[in-house]
Amino acid sequence: MIIKSVKLTNFRSHDFFELNCWKETAMISGENGSGKTSILEAIFEVLRGKSFRAVDKDIVQRGKDFYRVELVYVSGEKIVVTYDFSTGKKMFLVGDKKTARLPKKNRYPVVLFEPDDLNLVGASPSRKREYFDRSFSQLSETYSDSLSKYNKALRQRNELLKRENVSREDLFSWNVLLARFGVFLWKSRGELVEKINDKLTGVYRSIAENKDEIKILLKKDGEFDESMYLKELEKVFKKDKMIGHTSFGAHRDNYEFLFNGVEADGSASRGEVRSIVIALKFIEADEIFQKTRKIPVVLLDDVFSELDEMRQKALVKNFKKNQVIITSVGAVEDVG
Question: Considering the entire predicted model, what is its pTM?
Answer without folding.
Answer: 0.91
